[in-house]
Amino acid sequence: MNRLLFLVLFAMTSLMSLAQADRQYIRYGNRHFHQQNFVKAEAEYRKSLSVNPENPQALYNLGCALMMQKKDSAAVQQFEKAARVEKARMRKAKIYHNIGYVCQSNKLYGDAIKAYKESLRNNPSDDETRYNLALCKRLEKKNQNKNKNQNKKNQQN
Description:
mainly alpha, 7 helices, 86% helix
């Protein structure tokens, strides 16, 4: 009986120490991020994920650090992983907002629209996301009209 109790306590303290290490790396990463040292922040978030690969905060923060370094496709991958494991609606809304922002920056308006819509499903009161969604819809329509005009010119030639 004592041996079983000892094993349970040992297992619990081991798990707690891993969780603390996980959060500690995130805190270090956040310090670097706020100092705009995004490369070091990325390294700390990756250390956190090596301890706990399913930590939505580390995944989201890593995505932000990658986004700030203009590593857009890698950032979107991290945001998508974070969205799969995140449970809180407000944080999920931020994740999808950032995906939309990256897509919008790369003129992928269709993908940006999808991401912004998903963000608004999770946080309907986000006016910035609503504005970005409307802007992307307008830009996508403008691009479609531009492409139609170019196709007409090509057919005439």
